[in-house]
C-alpha cells in the first residue's frame, strides 16, 4: 500500500484530490495540509511515500516545502501539481528535488497513475514539459553534469537503461524493450544512480542531456 499526503490551499481541490487518490485500492491518503508548513508536519508524522503538492500555498510555498521534504525525508517523493503551465515552476520544482510535475487539469486516472509511477521511482513530467524544457534546464545548471569518466564507468547494459530512462520509459517498458525482468531494471537503475551520484530518475534524464549522451 502506497501512503500519500496531499497539500493544497483550496479546500475543494484538496478534498477532491484526496478522494480521487483514496479511491485507488493500492493508495492510502494518510494526511492532508492546507499550507507548506502544515505539509512538513504531516510528512514528519506519517513518513508518507508520496506527497502531492501544490505550488502556490501560504506560509511556505510548494517549492520550498519540496526542498525541505527531499532534505529531511528522503524516503518521501514529491509530485508537484499546479494550474500554472510556466517553465519557471518546473525548473524550480526539479531543482528542489521533485520527482514529478503535472498540471491540475490532469484526469483522475492520470493522477492516480502519476502517484504510482513516482512511488515506483519513475520520473513523471507531464506532456507540457517538453524536451526543450529539459535542454534549457540542463543549460541553467552550467556544466554541473557528470564527468565523462562517470559515464564511462557504466556498463553497456547500464548505458542502455540510462538511455531508456532518458526517453521517459517506465521500468515495465524498459524491461520489455531490453528483454529483461523489472527487478533487473530496478537494480540497473539503482546502480546508475549510485555511479552518477544522482538522486532520482528526473536527475538521470537531465544528466543524459547534460553529458551529450542524448543529442
TrEMBL record:
Entry-linked Gene3D superfamilies: 3.40.50.2300
Keyword Transcription: yes
Residues that bear 4-aspartylphosphate: 54
Domain HTH luxR-type: 147-212
Origin: domain of life: Bacteria
One Pfam family in the UniProt entry: GerE
Domain Response regulatory: 3-119
Gene Ontology molecular functions: DNA binding
Biological process according to GO: phosphorelay signal transduction system; regulation of DNA-templated transcription
Keywords attached to this entry: DNA-binding, Phosphoprotein, Transcription, Transcription regulation
Entries under CDD domains matching the protein: LuxR_C_like (cd06170), REC_NarL-like (cd17535)
Name of this chain's protein: LuxR family two component transcriptional regulator
Organism for this UniProt entry: Isoptericola jiangsuensis
